[in-house]
Amino acid sequence: MTAPELDLRGFRILPGLLDRAAQEAMVKALREVVQAAPVFSPQTPYGKPMTVRMTSAGRYGWVADRSGYRYAERHPEGMAWPPIPDHVLALWRDLVSVERDPDCCLINYYGEGARMGMHQDRDEADFSWPVLSVSLGDEGLLRIGNRTRGGRSESIWLRSGDVVVMGGDARLTYHGVDRIKFASSTLLPQGGRINLTLRVVD
Ligand SMILES: O=C(O)CCC(=O)C(=O)O
Ligand SMILES: [Fe+2]
C-alpha cells in the first residue's frame, strides 16, 4: 500500500510510489546505462572530488570539473550518453508532462559515507519545468532548506521507491543529502543508494 502524499516546503513527496518489481526493473535498465556510460567521480570546481559518483542518460549529462558545473553532450570519456530508459520516461509522463520529455536523467550513486551538500539545481534554462527525483536502494536523508542559502531546514528519510517532484515555487529551494543508511535496503546487492533526477535542460 502506498502511503499518502506529503508536501514538505513545496517538495511533493510520493512515498513508496514504485513497488519492488518496478524498482527492480528500473535498476536493471540502469545497469545497461552504466555499462555504456560508466559512473565517474566528478571534481568540484575547487578541485575536491565529490563523494557521490554519477553518470547520466539522455541528450545531456551533468558534469563537474575544474572549469565548473554544466550539462555536456558527452561523457568525460568521450561517448554520447545512452538514451533515458522507457520506465523512467513513463514516470515523467505520468507525473509531470506528456508535452515534453526530460533531456537528462542524472544518476547519482551514494556509496557508504557519500553525501551531497546543500545546493540549488540551477544549470537548466527554464525553471518552470520541475525536477523529478526517484530513490532506489538504501535510505537517504534529504534536507530541504530555503530559496536562499542557510536558515532553518527540515529533513526526511527517502526510501527505495519514493519519488519527489521539485517544482513550482520550490524549484530553486536549496536541498542536499546529509547521509545514507548503508545496507538498509536489499535492492542493490552491493548496497548504497541510487538517486535519479529527470531534468529539462534547454
Ligand atoms: O539524492 C537526492 O535525493 C538528491 C540529488 C540532487 O539533489 C541532485 O542530484 O541534484
Ligand atoms: Fe539537486
Written account of the structure:
Residues 101-202 form the Fe2OG dioxygenase domain. Keywords: Dioxygenase, Iron, Metal-binding, Oxidoreductase. It is a single chain. The protein has helices at 20-36, 86-95, and strands at residues 6-8, 11-14, 53-57, 61-65, 68-72, 104-110, 116-119, 131-137, 139-144, 154-158, 163-166, 175-181, 193-199. The chain is mainly β and 202 residues long. It has a single domain, classed as Alpha-ketoglutarate-dependent dioxygenase AlkB-like (Jelly Rolls, Sandwich), CATH 2.60.120.590. The termini are far apart.
Outline the low-pLDDT stretches. Answer: none
What ligands does this structure carry? 2-oxoglutaric acid, fe (ii) ion
Q: Classify the beta-strand content into a percent band.
A: 25-35%
Q: Summarize the helix and strand pattern as letters.
A: EEHEEEHEEEEEEEE
User: Major β-sheet, in short?
Assistant: 7 strands, antiparallel
User: What is the fold named in CATH at topology level?
Assistant: Jelly Rolls
